[in-house]
Specification:
about 575 residues, alpha/beta, ABC transporter involved in vitamin B12 uptake, BtuC, Rossmann fold, binds adenosine-5'-diphosphate, binds magnesium ion
């Protein structure tokens, strides 16, 4: 860690000093331009590199405060005041459009921000009386400061920007962002308010653009419509990919490389586009992690490193006394729930309860509605009718993430964050459930959870190195982290070997003994018979039997519907 900081600082100092080294094309002017463009690119790196939102509006956010300031100046306000108001208005606008944009799935966000960029450039062209049109809006401030002072100012702004980025992308936030980037649904199930965090990141990233762009407009002294345009935004996306997506210095290295290429190829302007294009192509083909990635190990972890000495054993989370299932508290109550997809009655008036300390299972042939019912309980689908009470509160219409403290869910195919360690994957869930705990407390709890599941030997391993069976057990440990009263497990036995199956059976028995209410969908009937207490059998969305597991599996109608369908 300290080595990385020293190396980054050394590289930063070298780049800052580069205009004074007499290298070809590297002037103080280029340095100033680079620093201010890089400041905006750092913001785009937060939006695109860290959160994975491909957005093409960064240049529009760079130009908006300048244009607003110019218009306000024409209305009689002093330019500095106009620019300040422009900055504030741009941030308010960014916050507002973020709310809309971040709800759109990937491609739509990209096209939506593209449209936003066209609108801003279009406005700048359409109202030349206010914006100067194609000949540009001239800024009267910034002339008093000399080039060296401007360079220092731009370096200071970039330095502050990098410090802000590093402060934003660390610890629990960095883990949360990685979870969102990798799999939004799984992040939401762990308790992450995905829309809120994406909107925040989009607004913060746009703020970098607004500040960098305003300084740049003052430095250059003129703002033209192309500055807001989509080409400029595309260039910023290419630039951070060239430098290294998601790394601290990637946007700076990328911007310096592009701006320098721009100057050097400017000596032979006919080749400019060609050189640019080849640089971007070569990056995608030969250095997908960018220039910075050529010098840096791929792992970016956001949690504790493995301690040098073996850690002193952490006591597993305290085990509540096992309550008797008979007459014990009802943790989940599904009441007259229906879900229709158009004319398909996927779930049609299903009711049941699951109590503390019991394992409840949903069985039924393919298309019976098991997955739909599961999605309704976990919040991925909203019921057409009926209520879903978890610990007495109706969650039927609540967003997914609000259930997290009361409910853990595992997936049929484990949905872990591959670029994080096993420990960090568990930490992401605990971060959401215990936001007030310190980093060290969260790490200790996550380790205790892994110990309780006999997975501590994998704690510091990267998830992508592990087998599918290990993934499933880790997913279960993660779902159960924070001791939620209700656990939903989607086909927990699928893909497990004999030994892992035994391990799973032991873990489920222990969770039940601790008083959890566990709902499982499982195709392995022998496994269901062995571990489940009660269940419901669905056929075409309707419950055809419910009660003790041995009774319902022996039921004649069930035999016909289920085993008939299997054979
Ligand atoms: P199971 O998990 O028991 O195999 P599902 O819950 O996946 O069953 O499906 C139940 C019924 O609902 C099926 O007829 C299926 O085609 C339908 N269904 C499920 N999801 C959707 C959807 N998103 N849109 C339309 N129909 C759906
Ligand atoms: Mg299914």
């Amino acid at each position: 860690m300290t080595m990385r900081i020293i190396a980054s600082l050394a590289l930063g100092c070298l780049m800052a000093a580069s205009p004074y080294l007499g290298l070809p094309g590297l002037t103080v002017g280029l340095g100033t331009l680079t620093a201010l463009l890089a400041l905006s690119a750092v913001g785009l790196n937060l939006i695109f590199g860290v959160l994975g939102m491909l957005a093409f509006g960064q240049a529009a956010f760079m130009s908006l405060p300048g244009y607003m300031g110019g218009v306000l100046e024409k209305l009689g306000l002093p330019l500095p005041a106009g620019l300040l108001i422009g900055l504030v208005l741009t941030l308010a606008l960014a916050r507002a459009v973020a709310e809309i944009f971040v709800r759109l799935p990937g491609m739509y966000l990209a096209v939506g921000t593209l449209g936003f960029g066209f609108v801003v450039e279009g406005l700048a062209r359409a109202f030349p009386a206010w914006t100067g049109g194609a000949s540009g809006l001239v800024f009267s401030i910034g002339r008093e400061i000399g080039p060296h002072a401007w360079y220092l100012l731009s370096l200071a702004a970039l330095g502050l920007g990098l410090a802000a980025y590093a402060a934003i992308v660390r610890g629990a936030r960095a883990r949360r962002f990685a979870a969102i980037r990798h799999d939004e649904l799984s992040a939401a199930v762990m308790g992450v308010d995905v829309v809120r965090w994406k909107a925040r990141a989009f607004t913060m990233g746009s703020a970098f653009a607004a500040i960098g762009g305003t300084l740049l407009a003052c430095y250059v002294g003129v703002l033209v419509p192309e500055n807001a345009g989509v080409n400029r935004s595309l260039e910023q996306v290419g630039t951070i990919m060239l430098g290294g997506l998601g790394s601290l210095l990637g946007p700076v290295v990328g911007t310096l490389a592009v701006q320098w290429l721009f100057v050097v190829s400017g000596y032979a302007a006919a080749y400019e586009l060609l050189i640019y294009g080849v640089a971007f192509l070569a990056t995608v083909l030969y250095a997908p992690r960018g220039i910075v990635g050529l010098f840096k190990a791929p792992q970016t972890t956001h949690g504790p490193a493995q301690p040098a000495a073996t850690p002193s054993p952490v006591a597993p989370a305290s085990v509540p006394p096992a309550p008797a299932p008979e007459g014990s508290e009802v943790y989940l109550r599904v009441q007259a729930v229906s879900k229709f997809f158009g004319g398909v009655r996927a779930i049609d008036g299903v009711s049941f309860e699951v109590r503390a300390g019991e394992i409840f299972t949903m069985v039924g042939p393919n298309g019976a509605g098991k997955s739909t019912l599961f999605n309704l309980i976990s919040g991925i689908e909203t019921p057409t009718a009926g209520s879903i009470l978890i610990m007495g509160r109706d969650f039927a219409q609540a967003p997914i993430h609000e259930r997290a403290p009361l409910m853990g869910r595992s997936f049929q195919v484990a949905r872990l964050v591959p670029e994080l360690t096993v420990l960090e994957n568990v930490m992401v869930r605990l971060d959401q459930i215990f936001p007030a705990l310190s980093e060290a407390q969260i790490a200790a709890r996550a380790l205790a959870q892994l110990q309780a599941f006999d997975l501590q030997h994998l704690a510091y391993r990267q998830v992508r190195e592990l087998s599918a069976g290990q993934h499933k057990l880790i997913d279960l440990a993660r779902a159960a982290a924070g001791d939620p009263p209700l656990l939903l497990l989607d086909e927990p036995a699928v893909g497990l070997g004999e030994e892992e199956l035994e391990h799973l059976a032991r873990l489920l028995a222990r969770l039940r003994a601790q008083g959890s209410a566990i709902v499982i969908v499982e195709h392995n009937i022998n496994f269901v018979r062995r571990i489940a207490d009660r269940g419901v059998v669905l056929d075409s969305g309707r419950p055809i039997a419910s009660g003790d597991i041995a009774d319902i599996l022996a039921d004649k109608a069930v035999q016909d519907a289920y085993f008939g369908a299997l054979t």
